[in-house]
Design brief:
It is built from 2 helices and no strands. By secondary structure, it is mainly alpha-helical. The chain has one domain.
Length: 107
């Protein structure tokens, strides 16, 4: 059991040494490079946000004045078709009733 604990300690120290060695290899940006890169990232984020905002606004307007109007027209035409069908059914019922009355009178 003591050997496992010693091995774990050696692994941890070996990991820390490797970690420090890798950090020394990293090329850190200068403050000027960091500022330039930060400004570039912020500019890209702002431009992307503006594009998304414009597209969202455009699609919202298109939906409000385009698709909703089409839905209205379709629903109005559907209602008119239903009204015409109901009127036709009423006329047919009236004709059938009239024929029934005529048949009873002639008998």
């Amino acid at each position: 059991m003591a050997k496992k604990e010693e091995k774990n300690i050696k692994d941890k120290t070996s990991f820390m040494k490797s970690f420090k060695a890798e950090l020394k290899k990293v090329v850190w940006p200068t403050p000027k490079q960091l500022l330039n890169n930060t400004i570039a990232v912020l500019a890209i984020v702002i431009i992307t946000a503006a594009i998304v905002f414009v597209l969202d606004f455009t699609f919202e307007i298109a939906n409000k004045y385009g698709i909703d109007k089409i839905k209205q027209v379709v629903s109005n035409s559907t209602e008119e078709t239903n009204n015409v069908n109901e009127t036709n059914e009423t006329d047919e019922n009236t004709i059938t009733e009239n024929n029934t009355i005529d048949n009873k009178i002639t008998e």
